[in-house]
C-alpha cells in the first residue's frame, strides 16, 4: 500500500495542516516578526539541505558541512576584522571549503572510506583545526561596513527577505545542475548504481570529488547568510545537532537514502515542514532536549518510511548505505 503513496505530497499536506493548526492554537505564530524569523531560519536550513541532497542523491552524505560552514565563515570574519580586504577574505573562505570538499571527495572516491565515516571525521578535524589555529574566540562578530555584502542575510528586495532570495537562487542553480548538466546526471547514475555507472563510462571518482566540493561551497554560502543575518558567527554551532536537521529535511522531503532519487523540490517541501515544526515548538516553549526528541522520532520515522518506499538493492545490502 505504501508503494502507492507519494511522500512529497504527504509531507506537503502535513506542513499545511501544521501551519493552520499552529496559526489557530499558538498566539503570535502569525505575527510578522515570527513569520520573518521562520522564513529566515527555513531558508538557511534549506540552503544546507540543497547541499546535503546533492550528496544523498549520489548515495553519499556530508556530516562535515556544518563545521565547514561555521569555520570557513568565522575565519573570514576574523580576517576582515584583522584588516584583510573583504573580497580576499571571502575568496580564502571559499578556498578553505574547497580544500575540505576535495579531501572529503578523495577519501570517499579514491580511498573508498564510507562517506558517513569520512565526513564525520572530517567535520571533527575541521572544527578542531579551525578553533586551534584560525579562530580564537567562540563568537566572531560581523565588522562594520557599507558593503552590500553585510546585508545579504538581513536586507530585503521588493519586500522579500534576502535569505529567501538566496535560498531560491541556490535551489534554482542546483536544480539546473542536477537536471541539465552532464555531471548532474552522473550524480543520479552513481546514486542508482555506482558499478553500473562505471561500466557505462561514467567517471565516478571525479564526479564524487566534484560532488563534495559543491556541497562545501554551498555550506559557505549558507554560512554567509547566517553571519550577515545575525551579525556574527558562533563557532559552537558546529557542535550542535543542526546537521541532523539538515538530513531530516532531505529525507523527510522524499529523497531516499539509497540514492539516485529525488530533487530540489523534495528539499523545499521537507524544509517548509521542519521550519514550521521547529518554529511551533519554540513558541510552545519546548526545551531544547524535548525538541530534539521530537526531531529524532520524526527522523527515525522518515527513515523507516524511506526504507519501505525505497527498498535497498543488492549492492546497498552488501556495502551498506552512504
Automatic annotation (TrEMBL):
UniProt keyword list: Cell inner membrane, Cell membrane, Membrane, Plasmid, Transmembrane, Transmembrane helix, Transport
Membrane-protein topology: Multi-pass membrane protein
InterPro entries hit by this protein: ABC_transp_permease
Name of the protein: ABC transporter permease
The keyword Zinc-finger appears for this protein: no
Transmembrane segments: 12-32, 38-56, 86-108, 115-136, 156-178, 207-230, 242-260, 267-287
Gene Ontology molecular function: any one: transmembrane transporter activity
Pfam families for the chain: BPD_transp_2
Compartments where located: Cell membrane
Species this chain originates from: Sulfitobacter alexandrii
A GO cellular component annotation in the UniProt record: plasma membrane
Classification lineage: Bacteria, Pseudomonadati, Pseudomonadota, Alphaproteobacteria, Rhodobacterales
